[in-house]
Hints:
Chain A is α/β, with parallel strands linked by helices. Chain A has nine helices and five strands, in the order βαβαβααβααβααα.
Amino acid sequence: MKKAIVLLSGGMDSAVTLFMARKDHDVEALIFDYGQKASKEVDRAILVAGAAKVPYTVVDVELPWRGSSLTDPDIAIPTAEESEGAKIPSTYVPARNIIFLSYGVSLAEASGAEAVYIGAHQVDYSNYPDCRDVFFAGFRKTVEAGTRSGTEGASIRIETPILNFSKGDIVKKGVELGVPFELTWSCYDEGKTPCGRCESCVLRAKGFADALVPDPLLAKNE
Amino acid sequence: MKKAIVLLSGGMDSAVTLFMARKDHDVEALIFDYGQKASKEVDRAILVAGAAKVPYTVVDVELPWRGSSLTDPDIAIPTAEESEGAKIPSTYVPARNIIFLSYGVSLAEASGAEAVYIGAHQVDYSNYPDCRDVFFAGFRKTVEAGTRSGTEGASIRIETPILNFSKGDIVKKGVELGVPFELTWSCYDEGKTPCGRCESCVLRAKGFADALVPDPLLAKNE
């Protein structure tokens, strides 16, 4: 099987993407510690990689300028209701997916992988500009023009297999593939249990409700 | 004056770019420590920022997979002659400029800067794909589509003021602007003095020769 890199966050979307990519690729997970308040994401990502039996690399991404409620201790994580008014909510992290994908492409080139997978989706999502097909189209052109693989051989593919899945579709696909949802973490905040109020918690709940499946993470906390 | 971010490497090209940008922007320098053998580049970049009287931020960029003779202790830095046969030499670092520009865009968005400057040039250069106009065109589209600034307001500009300068033009422009070339470091290797044989040393020498200006860095070492 050919090699692929999967960007793994600890959340449910990238976990499902990992299990999809694993079906026909020799997968390496790439995990980022970027100073997010929900630092347990990193531990959860490592657990998910372990459950999927794939090797992983954790990279520290320094963003000392912050610029997001996900990373700045002086800006509170908004509730889903508070986010709703904003075209792009304060949880947007400047250029985050461009940075993460760039690391993925770097590792792919250095390790001979043919693709980088990312679990972005643009249906039930938070209005992040870097989760939309128009962004990925631009990034693919950048990789094609700006890398050794793109100019001398086949460009590293940027794969977004759940881009047009609803949150419910993502849960269903994960159940089908045996994704250990109980290990994943979606909450933006740093509490011991999910806050249930941030946009990410609300979207996760919507996904499980739409799929008519109980969320095993919440079951554990009951 | 509006704010701009300048990617500063410690080499002569980004130093000239910094002094060009400084003329009409309130500049912040962004310096990367990415495990390069020529680690003194970082110190030199800090000295250049000091000479230009601009604030700076140093970011550690972890690339544990290496993939380049600039970072891998097991791969020797090639001489200019050895590089010449290669379409893209072993000194190419996978996705380096995509990563660096992405950090630049992140800082620009978080700090309200309107542009990111990079000292790439495609005339007397090393065949790096991520130094060509077609790459920057792709990256600009990526930023336009994938950032808050690009979708809600004016996209962060990616400025490449010396893209079509010859190495001699770069030296002449630097002399005109008072760039302290004696503080800059171009050699790819980790020696106390420039090796004089790597492609970067050879291109630097060509630049000073074409401009009919002695290189003050070599004068200091005599």
